[in-house]
Amino acid sequence: MKLKILYEDSNILAIEKPSGILVHPVPEQARYGTSPDKNSEETILSLFRKKYKKIEIVHRLDKETSGVMLLAKNTKAHEFLKEQFQERTIKKTYIALLDGWVRNDRGVINKPIGRSPKDFRRYLAGRGVRGELREAVTGYKVIKRLNISSHKYTYIEAYPKTGRTHQIRVHMKYLNHPIVGDNLYNPAELPLPNLSLRKGEEKRGDRMMLHAKSIEFENLKGEILKIESPIPLLFKKIVK
C-alpha cells in the first residue's frame, strides 16, 4: 500500500491516512514488533518504518477516520510536536456527517469523557461514565443540513481543542447526533442511498463519515504551516 505524503521536511511528515487502516499495531501485534507477518495487519507505523526507521506517531486517528496526520522522523521532532499538542496550539479541523439535524448552527461541547461501564471499547460523556473523567472540548459549525431518502443528516466542521480517544465521536453521540457509519456509537442508523461511484469506492456510506480536513502547526524552523487533506469523493457526492 502506498500512502500519499502531503508535506515533508527533514523532521516531519504529514500524510493522508485512508479510512480502514490502523495507526499502530493492536496489543496482540505489538508483542511481536511492528513488522506485520502474513497473519497481521499493516499499520501506518509499519508502512512508514520500512523507509523511515526512526519514525514516531505524534497523534492518532481512529482506524475508520481518514485525513491528514503528522509523523515525526526523529525524537527531537516528536518531542517538539508533542509539546504543541499538549499546549493545545495545534489547530485541527474535521468534517463529519451526522445523523439527524443539529439544532444550533454553532456550538461548543465542553463535557469530560470517561469509559463506558457496559462496553470496554466505548467512551461516554455525561451520566454513567466509569473511571477517570478527562477534560474534552469540541467546537463545531453546521455547514449544511440535508434530507436524503426522507432521512435527515447534518454536515459539520468540528474543531477538537483536546485530543481524547474517540472525542468527536463521543461528543456527537452526546448531542444525540452520532456520526454516520460509526458502528460503535451509531449501530442502528439508517443507511445512505446507493451512490454512483467508481470501482473501489465506498457505497452507501460504508465507512465512518469523519475526515481530518486540516492541521495547523509549527515546524522546527519556526514556520506556521497549514496542511490540508482533500475532501473524500464520497463526502462530495453526498454533500452536493
Description:
This protein is of the alpha+beta class and 240 residues long. The strands form 2 sheets. Strands 1, 2, 3, 4, 5, 6, 10, 11, 12 and 13 form a 10-stranded mixed sheet that branches. 15% of the residues lie in helices and 33% in strands. It has a single domain, classed as 2-Layer Sandwich (Pseudouridine synthase), CATH 3.30.2350.10. Residues 28-39 have low confidence and may be disordered. The longest helix has 13 residues, at 75-87. The chain has helices at residues 27-30, 44-48, 75-87, 167-174, 233-238, and strands at 5-8, 12-17, 56-57, 66-72, 91-99, 106-110, 113-115, 123-125, 130-134, 137-148, 151-160, 210-218, 224-228. Strand 10 and strand 11 (151-160) form a beta hairpin.
Quickly give the structural class: alpha+beta
Number of helices: 5
The tally of beta strands, per DSSP, is: 13
Radius of gyration, Cα only, in angstroms? 18 Å
Succession of helices and strands: EEHHEEHEEEEEEEHEEH
Name the beta content range.
25-35%
* Number of domain modules: 1
The CATH architecture term is: 2-Layer Sandwich
Q: Briefly note the CATH topology name.
A: Pseudouridine synthase
Major sheet: 10 strands, mixed
Low-confidence region ranges: 28-39
* Assigned CATH class: Alpha Beta
**Helical residue percent?**
10-25%
Average pLDDT works out at: 89
Give the distance, in angstroms, between the N- and C-terminal Cα atoms. Answer: 30 Å
